From TrEMBL:
InterPro entries: SfsA (IPR005224), SfsA_C (IPR040452), SfsA_N (IPR041465). Residues 80-204 form the Sugar fermentation stimulation protein C-terminal domain. Residues 12-71 form the SfsA N-terminal OB domain. This is Sugar fermentation stimulation protein homolog. Belongs to the SfsA family. It comes from the Archaea. It comes from Archaeoglobus veneficus (strain DSM 11195 / SNP6). HAMAP family: SfsA.
């Protein structure tokens, strides 16, 4: 995936869950942050950010945050996840996409695949000591998705989870038990019951004001 027209800035503060203040050319401006996670390891004053200007009459800000630098560039825009997953799914799961945002047992699952499988996609930004951890904040919605995928297995569906680790410096992914123990228990149960759980590394490669998001490969997912 290519992204053009990127603008450099520096992080100042997080105003609320989806709004941040950044500095562009010495001037503070507001930007939309499309990531509900805590991101406390990334949202550090002075950290370099990459933004893209957006048009829209109903927008409150002119800019979207695309990535934040924390030693490595970290993609923090969940609006990119679906398009990224669509390119990766055929390579990883050898299935095509039958339907997007498929409602099943009261949950909206990201994809119904043409191999009679449900697939949920999760973005992961937190890495410590080369270990990627998900989630970085409690996620009742994410927990519900996992439990729904387990139930789908009991109804003759195949269930799959794809973690998009949106930085290149992880070697393994584990559930973040410290942050959300119930989610960790559910993911461990899902893996034990045959839900296929995969994780891939993505790297943002910047060239001037353009960037390419590159698939670096897979990493193992281990219980935690």
């Amino acid at each position: 995936m290519s992204i053009s027209g990127l603008i450099d800035g520096n992080f100042i503060r997080r105003d609320n869950r989806f709004l941040v203040t950044v500095e562009i050319n010495g001037r503070p401006v507001k930007a939309h942050l499309k990531d509900p996670g805590r991101l406390k390891e990334l949202l550090v004053e002075g950290n370099r950010v990459l933004l893209k200007e957006r048009d829209g009459k109903n927008r409150k800000t002119r800019y979207d945050v695309i990535a934040i630098y924390a030693g490595v560039p970290v993609i923090v825009n969940s609006g990119l996840h679906s398009a990224l997953a669509e390119k990766i799914i055929p390579q990883i799961f050898r299935c095509g996409i039958a339907k997007r945002e498929f409602t099943f047992l009261g949950s909206r699952i990201d994809f119904l695949l043409d191999c009679h499988a449900l697939l949920e996609v999760k973005g992961c930004t937190l890495v410590k000591d080369s270990i990627a951890y998900f989630p970085d904040a409690p996620t009742e919605r994410g927990l519900k998705h996992i439990l729904t995928l387990i139930k789908a297995m009991e109804m003759s569906y195949s269930s799959k989870i794809l973690f998009l680790v949106t930085r290149p410096d992880a070697r393994v992914l584990k559930p973040n038990r410290e942050t959300h123990p119930e989610f960790a228990d559910a993911l461990n149960e899902a893996m034990n019951k045959g839900v296929e759980v995969r994780a891939v590394l993505l790297e943002l490669v910047l060239k001037g004001h353009e960037a390419e998001i590159v698939l670096k490969g897979e990493i193992p997912v281990k219980p935690g």
